[in-house]
Amino acid sequence: MRRVLKIRYNCLPLVASATFGLAQAQVSAPTAKDLETVPQFRTQVTGQSAGPLERHLAPAGMKPDTAPHDFTGSYSLVTAPGRMPPGADMPVTEGSANRGCLPSFVTGVNGNPTHVVSGRDVIVIVQEENHLVRRVYLNAEHPKNLRPSVEGHSVGWFEGDTLVIETVGLNSGKTVVERLRKIRDGRQIESVANGRASLANWRPDLGWVEDICEDAGELFGPKYPTRDWLK
Amino acid sequence: MSELGRIAALVCGAWACCASSRPALSAPTDPGGNSHPSFEGVWQITHPVSQVKTAAGKTPPLRPEPRRLYNERRAALRAGKADSYDSTYLCKPMGEPRTGYEGQPFDIVQNERVMFVGYTWNRMVRFVYMTEQHSEAVGPAFYGAWIGRWDGDTLVFDGVGFNAGTLLDKTGMPHSDSMHLVQRLKLKDGGRLLEIRTHVEDAKTFTAPWDTVHTYKRLPGAQIQEDVCPQRLKLTIY
User: Fold this and answer.
1) ipTM (interface pTM)
2) How many whole angstroms separate alpha carbon B30 and alpha carbon A70?
């Protein structure tokens, strides 16, 4: 923990504050305590398992958008603080688990708050943690000679009201197929990937909150931290 | 008319004829079905910017202390020590509007409720909520907090709540956390070009508000490629 006390910089990751209206990142001078709020480092710094982020449910009276092909909105995973919804499971993931601020591949709409924008030709799915960005190109084909990457290349199409996403070009070489659909009158998104399901709650009161892992990286010296370094 | 003038008129006339016969690329409607032009797609600045200038081509009107700081940074840049003031060398975000300036493409995904702007550079993003008022709980954030509206066929983005740790350009043009940006996005040349006029208000840094204008070309069929800055700059052992 000695290196943590050598904090010398003046930028930092977030302390998210959810208020009625759009929640935004709150950024101030970093302290050792702040490191505990950085999802990537919470486990290493506190020694505690990183549980699901606690977020409030959508306030009563707010109506979701029920248009089945428009997934635009903000979503979070848990239905109540500290509890996973019944039947929920972890998404398919691969990659660094955000170690060294490297991105991960995470399916569906789940986990950290996730923001979706449905456009005409592309649906973008963005997880707040470490700004993981996936682009799903609608009714398109995978390019030839695809260079493997963390997020791979995703194309999507609708089967009725279900968005089917096929992702190839992952570093693992695997192909992942996901099926997303709005359920409960648009209040939740169900994501099923390779037989694993997760649910996410529609959260109209949440806006995008910056989570810049790289901002905390400098606090640990010239190289981004490893688990061993923090011992 | 001189011979040169006649030739110029011929060339311009020919170009205008050809340009007008090319189909417009902007879709008549946005994904929400409204009759707004579509800004959706991948864009790239036509002339990359190292040093931001006002619309009149001048250096922005800095206050004395920010000017001193800026001059120091320019000296450091000339000495090859840009990393002494530019935190992007540590993969910290470039911020707005700089991220679109240096030549890497970005995309816009358009929805009537929220617009998404996604940069190549280290997967940086902006969400512009098509609503009337900023939230009370805002920033500072590297990319600020944005709301948007339509003004006819022009998209207007309004940003506040910026983290003062970013720079307006590669040469180290500073700004404060009081910066307020208003960007007017307009499609030109049948949707092939995007003009962004950025109005900068920052009384802590500049003696007066100023505008800067840049043009971006649409890249049909292009897709944003993945960029992982810590890996690219070898800042991580992973």
Assistant:
1) 0.85
2) 13
